[in-house]
Specification:
This protein is globular. β2, α2 and β3 form a beta-alpha-beta unit. The protein has helices at about 10-25, 40-45, 60-70, 110-115, 135-150; strands at about 1-5, 25-30, 55-60, 75-80, 85-90, 100, 120. The chain contains five helices and seven strands. About 35% of the residues are buried.
Length: about 160
């Protein structure tokens, strides 16, 4: 399992997701441009002292990631929009090698990335309450659902 952040914008979200990746030994891919510098203090603070445990790859663009970082893994794109992702995360058949792709906080994944795969999921929410969840919250929900579905949590205590 891997997490891919496409053009993330908010340093604390990436830092929280990096901590999530350290806790689960999941590789984190960052696709540039980033909305911050990797030495940003808010990014470092959110990741605390877990950064040495994060398997991190930074790619200059989507093409470089897809050519060199994907390595045959299946892309699973996320979206808060029902018209982009009809399948709720709890009904999706995740596989151990999946790359979970999340878009930028303010605009989500662009159509050209969504078109790269038929695999799209969303987190179900009550109608009319909020547009979307915070990126780091969404990443945690989707990652743990994916790990459980793929049978990767069974050996964990």
């Amino acid at each position: 399992m891997q997490i891919v952040l496409y053009e993330p914008e908010i340093p604390p979200n990436t830092g929280n997701i990096a901590r999530l990746c350290a806790a689960t030994d999941v590789k984190l891919h960052l696709i540039e441009p980033l909305g911050y510098r990797l030495d940003d203090r808010h990014l470092k603070r959110a990741g605390l002292d877990y950064w040495p445990n994060v398997r991190l790859a930074v790619w200059p663009d989507w093409t470089a990631f897809e050519s060199n970082g994907l390595q045959g893994a299946r892309l699973v794109c996320t979206s808060a929009k029902k018209d982009c992702a009809e399948t709720s995360v709890q009904h999706f058949a995740f596989q151990p090698e999946d790359c979970l792709v999340f878009g930028p906080e303010t605009r989500g994944l662009p159509p050209e990335i969504l078109k790269r795969t038929p695999h799209h999921v969303r987190i179900p929410m009550l109608e009319g309450r909020v547009r979307s969840l915070n990126l780091s919250t969404a990443a945690g929900i989707v990652l743990y659902m994916a790990l459980a579905c793929a049978g990767l949590l069974e050996a964990w205590t």
